Amino acid sequence: MIYYVNMEGQRLGPYGVDELRRLVQTGALSLDDTWWDDESETWKTLRQFPQLPESAQHQLPEAVEESTPPPPPTPQDDFVEVVPAVPSTPLVGRPRRRGRAVLRWALVILLIASLGVLYLRPPAWLSSKLPQLVRNNRPLPTSVAGHILFMKRDGKAALAGLDVEALLPLSEGRAGFREAGKWGFRDEQGVVVDPQFEEVGSFSGGVAPVRVAGKWSFIDRTGKLILPPTYDYLGECHEERAHLIQGEKHGFIDSSGHVVIPATFEDARDFSEGLAVVRKGKRWGFINRSGTLVIPADYECALDFSEGGTAVRVKDKWGIIKKDGSTVVSPQFEDACSPSAGCFAARSAGKWGFYKLSGEWLVPPIYDDAGPYAEGLAPVAMGSLWGFIDKKGNFAVNLRFDRVASFRSGLAVVWSGGERDYIDTHGNIVKPILPIPSNAR
Fold this sequence. Notes:
The protein is mostly beta strands. Helix content is 13%, strand content 41%. It contains five helices and 38 strands. The longest helix has 26 residues, at 95-120. The protein is globular.
């Protein structure tokens, strides 16, 4: 059996190899999801899973179109720059009034420009705060009757294209799509970068990772390569740093293509709240954005930071530490997720509940499985059925699904009887609303 943790720290599994293959093919897991390798005692992405068939890996983007991947959220997805309308009649009156009007317009333009800068290049302290705000409102990729769609939380949808084979979520106004086996990018109106790449990630910080002839590089928003494709792997930018792999070593690169943290680590994960978890030897610790090890590599395992804390494992027990390395909750649990909504999912005596950072149970450990809170709701399971509870531990969506994903953009993907649907936060099924035109592209 294999344990999985997605990019938001949610535990999934355990699953066997056959179940893993099915989840990859149906879109429940993505290439950026991780699995724990007991032999090497490391977290590895599904790109590195030896028993996953090549065909299943190629099918993954189609799964992304039907579910909601995890990749790393960005603050720019649905940004729309609003330019004030210019008056149709010339300004009249005294020069002072005319000067004040010009000053007001100048201030408005300066404000819009400032927002644009924050949109494209958010500082580290802000980039970790904005993704959730934007992610909650961006269209999600899905499919209906063989058509690939962008769907919003109210069900309103836009056709992505009749020939599109797979679709990634919108990020910075761009969504990766596959057509005739090649990947390109489009916005909600049409194609902006023609399909030409073997594989792509999402835009973040104005760039997107792409694979060309087996090697990875970055492209800008026009599709131009900004550095030669030389890396074995490049991830998406998180807090102005992108995870790179060269050979068997891991490091980080910035969006301009400069290596800012040399590839010297045995393993690494993306930056979150100013820190990234890395492995030195067989132990895990945390580096800052300059590459300095600020929390010693003393842990058997560690997850990403969330809300100022993260879950770590010491002597086979999980607890929570703060960003200065101090212990918030001592290691005492059989398993745990990183904090969300002021608590964290934890397993004790074989059952899952939610433990407060203050040191008491918010929701007693009565569930057979659970995941972290997202958009105010947390997935829980009893027996083989899943539902969602609110922050008081009350059921917001009753136990009735075979499998669920966390809420994003006000919707959650659920599976029941082999069928995939979307539900809102009240458990109502949301169906895409789209008159599909015959001449759509």
